[in-house]
Design goal:
This protein is mainly β and about 160 residues long. The protein is built from one helix and 13 strands.
Amino acid sequence: MSPKTPALDPMTVPTTSGSGYPAHLRAITEGRFKRRLTAVLGLTNFGVNLTTLEPGAGSALRHWHEAQDEFIYIVDGEATLVTDEGEQVLKAGMCAGFPKGKANGHCLLNKSSRPVTFLEIGDRSWPEVAHYPDDDLVAKPKSEGSKEIGFFRKDGTAY
C-alpha cells in the first residue's frame, strides 16, 4: 500500500546527481545521488535530502556556510567526516551538525567498500556565501539581489 499525501516513500523520489561546481572540481561528487525530499513535498524553509555515496564518492568539496546551518544523520553504512580537526568515521545512527558562520570546512567521504546513505538537512537562509578552504572557490549570489548562486574564485572573479 502506498502512502497518501502528505506522506511519501522516499525511495519513490527520483535521484539527482552531478554538481554545479566548475568542471575541474566536480570529480569529488561522482557517485553521489540525492533524493530531494522536501522539494517533492513543497517545503521551502529548509531542505532535506536522502543522499547516497557510492564507494570513493564525496558529499561535496570541504566547505562551510556563512548563513546556513547544516545537519547530517547517517542512515546506513559509514562515512568519513573530514573537518579542520581531521577525519573520523561516522556509522549508522550517528549525526553531526555544522553551525552557520563557523569557519570549519567539512565534507563526507565514502572510504568504505559499500554505499553510505545519510540525511542532509539545511536551512535556506539567504543571501548565502559558502567558503571552500581547500580550493580556489566561493559560492555566493551571482550579483547583488540575485536569488541564484554563482561560483567565484577567492579573488572575486567568476568561473
